[in-house]
Amino acid sequence: EAGVTQFPSHSVIEKGQTVTLRCDPISGHDNLYWYRRVMGKEIKFLLHFVKESKQDESGMPNNRFLAERTGGTYSTLKVQPAELEDSGVYFCASSQVWPPLRYEKLFFGSGTQLSVL
Amino acid sequence: AQSVTQLDSHVSVSEGTPVLLRCNYSSSYSPSLFWYVQHPNKGLQLLLKYTSAATLVKGINGFEAEFKKSETSFHLTKPSAHMSDAAEYFCVAGGGADGLTFGKGTHLIIQP
Lengths: 117, 112
Fold this sequence. Notes:
Low-confidence stretches of chain B: none
Number of domains of chain B: 1
CATH class of chain B: Mainly Beta
Largest sheet of chain B: 6 strands, mixed
Largest sheet of chain A: 7 strands, mixed
Distance between the termini of chain B: 41 Å
CATH superfamily of chain A: Immunoglobulins
Order of helices and strands of chain A: EEEEEEEEEEE
CATH topology of chain B: Immunoglobulin-like
Distance between the termini of chain A: 37 Å
Largest interface: A-B, 22 and 24 residues
CATH superfamily of chain B: Immunoglobulins
Oligomer: heterodimer
Shape of chain B: globular
CATH architecture of chain A: Sandwich
């Protein structure tokens, strides 16, 4: 069974540019989460999809971040325009279990390392 | 609200010696507690979990952790370190509306 896959693994862009990160969850997983780890800090929650709907986006830092999950399959996270403080590792996770509070059933991808110069 | 403190950013041990990674938590209720591991270029993998059953929890690859409510601790241990244990380890609290709260991570370095 394929795990959660994220693309690209690394991205280096200049301040002001746009970057789109992609996450393919495990097939059949309705719950999809985005997390972010800024250097030296903890991994923080960004948002949670249930199928194509945003269940909780309380962790999104500002309106430069846009997450979508069209059709309830893969998800994209766009940063436009990127700022220096957006640098970090962006993790995606998915789970099949409902309610989504059974965190032991969460499967994580390997992350996208974003560097904004 | 909940918080997690991993007391060491780096721990270095020799192969074959015991491993101790320390974690303290703070929560207004009894959270579920987890340890995750991330090897280079891999996703976060669940090592073990505590969910209010037995206080001594056994995980994969010989790791275990003990929940001590009086000390608000959930330290991760392994009797004998192996080179393949070199990775970053995250202590995580989860539950309720607070979602998952991660510690800052501990890099485990194994000396040959």
